[in-house]
């Protein structure tokens, strides 16, 4: 449907604990489409050996030639739902450099061993395999890595100016109907899971003190802290960008949703898109959420003039 509506690219999450397998879904999408780009959004390097990732990208490239992008980052839910912190940017940079070398047909050193793509000609696209790599970052260290080893950058809130020719901004929210209340049930269903990310991310990175800065944040954190420590990461990230979990629903005010997401009237959001373009953003990755994804995709495409 996104392809039919004119969307340029589909970004697919890499968070195995809450979404189905990235590569299987991407392969299925490749066989069901003919034009739209397909991107990992965002690939977590620590989940796989770089040869495994290179082979997966080669597989998708063979199914959708010229349509594949590798989005790579340090990991948020993909790592934290495993009880692990985000990767260091040093490790991400090393992984991306190895991945690019493998796709180019080079031999690289990984974990003190020499590795390469050994696929015979009829088993994979010929090397070099030209898959662009976009780094997901929201801070200066990650942005510096993106400049060194990436073809572009994806951010959720950081303005990078016009440093990158390919500058993707991830957006969460919903286009309001004429006269619709921003605190309606539909809006909460379609944008609430995205607004809840503010609580999840702040707690994961700074604990109760950090999330206390948000509306009812102290009460939200207290409810999370009641969960046994060995299971707490499940409670924090439950429903990740899919549904509002019970703790979020109990403490996150509905008014917070429009303040924290890309939610507003069509005219308001079109103006915000223009402002992002003026800041150097060249592409937006829109996350539709809720019970009516078709409605969200259609409304956003109409608003954006796709």
Topology overview:
Layout: H1 2-5, E1 9-12, H2 22-32, E2 37-43, H3 50-63, E3 68-72, H4 77-80, H5 89-103, E4 108-110, E5 113-115, E6 133-136, H6 140-149, E7 152-155, E8 167-172, H7 185-195, H8 197-211, H9 217-225, H10 232-237, H11 246-251, H12 254-260, H13 266-278, E9 283-287, H14 293-304
Structure write-up:
This protein is an alpha/beta fold. Helix content is 45%, strand content 13%. α8 packs across α9 (217-225). It is globular.
Give, in spatial order, the strands making up the sheet with the most strands. 1-2-3-6-7-8-9
Q: In percent, how helical is the residue content?
A: 40-55%
How large is the share of residues in beta strands? 5-15%
Per DSSP, the total helix count is 14
Mean pLDDT: 96
- Strand segment tally: 9
Q: What is the general shape?
A: globular
Largest sheet: 7 strands, parallel
Termini distance? 13 Å
Question: Low-confidence runs (pLDDT<50, min 5 residues)?
Answer: none
* Estimated structural class: alpha/beta
Characteristic terms for this protein:
single chain, 306 residues, alpha/beta, two-stranded antiparallel sheet, 14 helices
Offer a concise description of the structure.
The chain has 306 residues and is of the alpha/beta class. It has helices at residues 2-5, 22-32, 50-63, 77-80, 89-103, 140-149, 185-195, 197-211, 217-225, 232-237, 246-251, 254-260, 266-278, 293-304, and strands spanning 9-12, 37-43, 68-72, 108-110, 113-115, 133-136, 152-155, 167-172, 283-287. The chain is globular and about 60 Å long.
């Amino acid at each position: 449907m996104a392809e039919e509506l004119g969307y340029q690219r589909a970004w697919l999450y890499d968070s195995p604990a809450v979404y189905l397998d990235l590569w299987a879904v991407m392969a299925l999408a490749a066989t069901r489409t003919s034009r739209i780009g397909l991107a990992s959004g965002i690939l977590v390097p620590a989940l796989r050996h770089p040869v495994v990732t290179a082979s997966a990208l080669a597989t998708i490239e063979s199914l959708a030639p010229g349509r594949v992008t590798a989005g790579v980052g340090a990991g948020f839910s993909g790592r934290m739902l495993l009880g692990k912190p985000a990767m260091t940017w040093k490790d991400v940079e090393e992984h991306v450099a190895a991945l690019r070398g493998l796709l180019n047909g080079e031999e690289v050193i990984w974990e003190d061993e020499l590795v390469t793509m050994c696929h015979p000609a009829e088993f994979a696209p010929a090397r070099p395999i030209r898959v662009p790599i976009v780094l997901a970052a929201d801070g200066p260290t990650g942005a510096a890595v993106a400049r060194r080893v990436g073809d572009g950058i994806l951010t959720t809130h950081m303005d990078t100016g016009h440093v990158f020719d390919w500058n993707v901004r991830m957006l969460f929210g919903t286009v309001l109907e004429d006269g619709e209340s921003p605190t309606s049930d539909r809006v909460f269903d379609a944008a609430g899971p995205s607004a809840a990310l503010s609580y999840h991310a702040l707690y994961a990175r700074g604990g109760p003190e950090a999330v206390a800065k948000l509306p009812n944040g102290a009460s939200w954190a207290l409810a999370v802290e009641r969960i046994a420590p060995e299971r707490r990461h499940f409670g924090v990230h439950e429903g990740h960008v899919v549904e509002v979990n019970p703790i979020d629903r109990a403490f996150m005010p509905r008014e917070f949703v429009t303040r924290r997401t890309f939610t507003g009237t069509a005219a308001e959001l079109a103006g915000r898109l223009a402002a992002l373009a003026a800041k150097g953003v060249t592409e937006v990755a829109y996350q539709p959420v809720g019970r009516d994804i078709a409605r969200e995709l259609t409304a956003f495409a109409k608003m954006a003039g796709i």
